[in-house]
Structure formats: structure tokens, C-alpha cells
Specification:
The protein has two domains: 203 residues, Rossmann fold (3-Layer(aba) Sandwich), CATH 3.40.50; 83 residues, Putative methyltransferase TM0872, insert domain (DNA polymerase, domain 1, Orthogonal Bundle). The protein is globular. Strands 3-2-1-4-5-7-6 form a seven-stranded mixed beta sheet, with helices on both faces. With 313 residues, the protein is of the alpha/beta class. Helix 1 packs across helix 2, helix 8 crosses helix 9 and helix 9 packs across helix 10.
């Protein structure tokens, strides 16, 4: 794909909601850890034109290339950086920034990534088994299904895909690859079809592909690393805005917010607090913000988006 091929790299979800929650200081400094095609960034920079700085990070060089062209009108405010969002602190260090007014993460896969067969993210079309968000990384989905032991396949299909037939699918993969190596999505679908009814198979496609994508990109570990240090780089009153698309990510974000907002971790039978812990965050969204029917009608991929917001005390 070239930039000229697509007029839209990705349709950003909950665009207005993200901007209204994230921007607490209209002259502040903000980090977009997953800038992607620049949809959220463009909306924010267009509506808050006095922002001091917008730090755009993405691990996909093609996404950065696209957003750099799209956002060239804002070149005085925005800078682009190739990195995983979990390493945002290194980017800030290079820019001599110690604290920011807000950090945004949109953890979804870009529409371009899903719709481009060479990237290998979709089971909806015949594509290679790649799934790397950062194409400079070595391990692909094909490497996993062709080389990993059966028990490890069972583990990731169960943990990351929540697939009930993980063991049967893993066993069929091992049998198949003994004769022929996996190279494309159609082979994977054929394996899943062997152990599932047609109706079950469609859901299993999504679960298995999700599990492979999470593993290839080490998504949950990167999210945990990010969360472990994000609040340290927020100014008081600064906000952390995260959009998750599946329960595993959303659960990590929710638990993190709850932990940071809890002032005491002593057992309930203790009369007085001995842990000395103080709350570091206020939860702004008690329940995740979801896209409305109108947005979903325009962008079906917004259906699974869950937005959570926390504010540093």
C-alpha cells in the first residue's frame, strides 16, 4: 500500500468523547501512543489549535508515514516517533519532557491493517500469516503455528482467545504441519473447520486470530509495562484515556484504574490503616463509554470499543 491508495487509513472511534476527556489544558502537552492514521490527532489539533505539543507515537512505520502527511498542517505542534507505546517514556526523555497533560491509547487494529492482505490480520480474506504491527519485529503468526509446541498453542488459544476448543485446534495444527507448513489464513480456517460446526467456526476464527495477534505483538505485556509507569508522567489533573477492544485489555485497564484509585489496601478487619497507601488517581468513567448506534452504523468496528478515563490526583 502507498499513502495515495487510501483516503482513510482508519476511522477513529469515539472521536468527540476522546477529545473532551483528554484535553484538560488547551495549551498543554499530550502523548498519543497509538497515533495510527492520525484520526484522533487531527480532530484534537483542529479543535484545540493552541496545544503546545502533540507527541505522536506508533510502532507501525506505514501508519506514521500516513499520519505525517495527513497532519503536515500541524507540523509546528506535532512530532512523530517510531516506538511501541510501552516505551513512551524513552520518547519523552529524548524530547526532554518530564510530564504531560494527557496520554491517549487506542488499542485497536487499524482498518488499513485489517484490510491489507499482506499484513495478515484478517480471516475474512485470504492472507499471509503475518500479524506484525511493527514489521521490523521477526516473529510472525506463521512462526507460531509452524514451530511452537502443542501445549504452548493450547495456552495462547485458551488465555488470549478464550477458545473452548483450544486443545483440539492445537492438535490439528500439529498434525497438519507435519505434512505441510502453514502460510496463509485459509489453511488455519480449514483446521478450525475440522473441529467446529459452521456456526461455531466463525467465532473460533476470530478467537484464534486474536490469540495469534496478541502473541505476535506481545500486546498484553506491552500494556502492563505502559500502565506500570504511565501515571508517573502525568501532571496533576492530567488524564489517561484508553480505548480497548476486547475483554483481556479492558480488564487490565479497569483493574489498574481501580488499584490507583484505592487509598488503602489493608485487610477489612484492620481498624486503622497500616499500609500508608494513598490514591493516585480519580476514575472519571465509572463505566466504559461505548459508541452509540449512529456511530456503529457508520463504523461497525466501533461496536466493541470501550473507553476508560482516569485523572491523576
Amino acid at each position: 500500500m502507498t499513502i495515495d491508495t487510501y483516503s482513510t487509513f482508519h476511522i477513529p472511534v469515539l472521536q468527540k468523547e476522546v477529545a473532551s476527556y483528554l484535553i484538560t489544558n488547551p495549551k498543554g502537552i499530550y502523548v498519543d501512543g497509538t497515533v495510527g492514521g492520525g484520526g484522533h490527532a487531527e480532530f484534537i489539533l483542529k479543535n484545540f489549535n493552541k496545544l503546545n505539543r502533540y507527541v505522536a507515537i506508533d510502532q507501525d512505520r506505514q501508519a506514521l508515514q500516513f499520519s505525517a502527511v495527513r497532519l503536515q498542517a500541524y507540523h509546528q505542534q506535532i512530532s512523530f516517533h517510531h516506538a511501541n507505546f510501552s516505551r513512551f517514556d524513552r520518547v519523552l526523555a529524548d524530547l526532554n519532557l518530564m510530564a504531560v497533560d494527557g496520554i491517549l491509547l487506542d488499542l485497536g487494529v487499524a482498518s488499513y491493517q485489517i484490510d491489507t492482505p499482506e499484513r495478515g490480520f484478517s480471516y475474512m480474506q485470504s492472507c499471509v500469516l503475518d500479524m506484525r504491527m511493527n514489521q521490523e519485529n521477526e516473529m510472525t503468526a506463521a512462526d507460531i503455528v509452524n514451530k511452537w509446541p502443542e501445549q504452548d498453542l493450547v495456552r495462547i488459544f485458551t488465555e488470549y482467545g478464550e477458545e473452548r476448543k483450544a486443545r483440539q485446534i492445537a492438535r490439528q495444527i500439529v498434525r497438519y504441519r507435519a505434512k505441510e507448513q502453514f502460510t496463509n489464513s485459509e489453511q488455519m480456517k480449514k483446521i478450525i473447520n475440522r473441529v467446529s460446526t459452521r456456526q461455531q467456526a466463525i467465532k473460533s476464527y476470530a478467537r484464534i486470530f486474536q490469540a495469534l495477534r496478541i502473541t505476535v505483538n506481545d500486546e498484553l505485556n506491552h500494556l502492563q509495562v505502559f500502565l506500570s509507569k504511565a501515571i508517573s508522567y502525568l501532571k496533576s489533573g492530567g488524564r489517561l484515556v484508553i480505548i480497548a477492544y476486547h475483554s483481556l485489555e479492558d480488564r487490565l485497564v479497569k483493574q489498574y484504574f481501580v488499584t490507583q484509585a484505592r487509598p488503602c489496601t489493608c485487610p477489612p478487619e484492620f481498624i486503622t490503616c497500616v499500609c500508608g497507601k494513598k490514591a493516585t488517581m480519580k476514575i472519571i468513567t465509572r463505566k466504559p463509554v461505548r459508541a452509540d448506534e449512529q456511530e456503529i452504523a457508520v463504523n461497525i468496528r466501533a461496536r466493541s470499543a470501550r473507553l476508560r478515563v482516569g485523572e491523576k490526583l
